[in-house]
Amino acid sequence: MSHVLRTGVASPVEASAFFEAQLKFRTDPADLAADLLAGEAGEGGRIVVIDTRSPEHYAEGHIPGALSFPHRTMSPATTAGLVRDRVYVCYCDGIGCNGSTQGAYKLAALGFEVKELIGGLHWWRQDGFAVATGSEPGVLLEGGIACAC
């Protein structure tokens, strides 16, 4: 018997609902970069990119425009200044790190709309997008590798 099929196959309705839910919770580097380049993030945009790693790792390299907000410091008090009508996109190092999941969970539990960046900074770099260094957010000025999908 097929290893792929032995656990069953979801109906098209079930599969559609599952994949729609995944898209509600996650985004990828190409879509985030397109929004950064289009001005959807930062001042006046609806999206805020959050680097959930330590300030030291942020300074070594981060997504341009991202704010440093380590997940370990997120609380009702530290999030009091965040704007409620934004969508917060959290990221960390990559798939071997759960900092973005921790940050997204904490923000969602505090009532914020969130998404998680698939693959984190690792996939961002792998797709050829620039990183900013230092303690300032910076600005993304050009795209990386065009998404092949």
TrEMBL record:
Pfam families: Rhodanese. Gene3D superfamilies: Rhodanese-like domain. Residues 43-133 form the Rhodanese domain. This is Rhodanese. It comes from Aeromonas sanarellii.
